[in-house]
Amino acid sequence: MISKLSTFYVQLYKIVDDSSSDPIISWSKSSPNGFVVWDVRKLRRDILMKPSGVLLGRNSTEFIANLRSHGFRSVLKGFGELEFEHDDFTRGTVTRKKKMVKALSERFDAQIKAFKCRFKAKKPSSLKVDLIISSPIK
User: Fold this and answer.
1) Cα–Cα distance between 126 and 84 in angstroms, integer?
2) Fewer beta carbons within 10 angstroms: which end of the chain, N or C?
């Protein structure tokens, strides 16, 4: 899991840091921890549809969902522009990505524990329903 996460961050960092993609996606001018998607259509066509963009998502909706699942926050921008921030995704700082992966891994572990607790809590009540339905009416 962690190697896949680090690959996501590394690939995203390379694309955002690549000056040739600045008309499509670039570092934010208002935040050192963010980037802006200037043209969603070109992002999908020119970046996400390439084999190198597969880890980010196959389309813009999947890309945004992946960003949110990796801890990025949306920032309100103008029409057709999307800005995302992450406290540990900083221009010029590659070493902080390890911290991002660890934090995401810990959050994922906590979500799994919460899911298991909810599943265990639901199990006895579903058994009662099964007993009521399967018992013969007298």
Assistant:
1) 42
2) C
